[in-house]
Amino acid sequence: MDFKNVIYAFACLSFAVVIGAAVYEHVAVAPRWSAAPPASLSMFQGKYGLNPTPFWKAIHPVTLLLLIASIILFWNTGSRPYLLITSAGYALVLIITFAFFVPELIAITSQAFSENADPSLTKRAGLWVTLSLVRLAFLIVLAITAFLGLAKSGIQSSN
């Protein structure tokens, strides 16, 4: 296996880590915090509250850099369209994430704790989770696209 293939494999691995973390959050974390905010938000509060931000701030740039490096390394191969689709889709997801998902999540999870659920906040949380599942499904399609491109990495493009 040569250097180029290792970079592409790491790009796919990094993308898979993003998806794995997102699946974990949707299975283990989101159902808890979105159940009855602000009463269900205690996991984010206090000195030892859950803070996933450092993970996401680290994994996204690494994944983008590996995808960009793969595009450069595999420009003249059959992998190029797979990498371009994956990278463009991922960039679009990140733009939407930083424009909507992050601000809305911060707005919801930074509410002061209360023993009572707020129906409007619970509805917002439910919408956030639903839209985030759509985002996750799109990311899974992009990951499959990236992995399919691995099989085309040695085939020369006709362009």
Structure, explained:
The chain has four helices and no strands. The longest helix has 32 residues, at 119-150. The protein is elongated and about 60 Å long. It has one domain. The model has no long low-confidence stretch (mean pLDDT 93). It is mostly helical and 159 residues long.
List the defining traits of the structure above.
159 residues; mainly alpha; 0% strand; elongated
Describe the sheet with the most strands: none
Estimate the strand proportion: under 5%
The backbone outline, from C-alpha atoms, is: elongated
Give me the Rg, rounded: 19 Å
Helical content (DSSP H or I, runs of 4+): over 70%
Distance between the termini: 25 Å
As for the number of domains, it is 1
Question: What string, H for helix and E for strand, traces the elements in order?
Answer: HHHH
The total beta strand count reads: 0
Q: What is the overall pLDDT average?
A: 93
In short:
The protein is mostly helical and 159 residues long. It has helices at residues 3-33, 53-73, 80-109, 119-150.
Secondary structure topology:
Elements: H1 3-33, H2 53-73, H3 80-109, H4 119-150
Helix pairs in contact: 1-2, 1-4, 2-3, 3-4
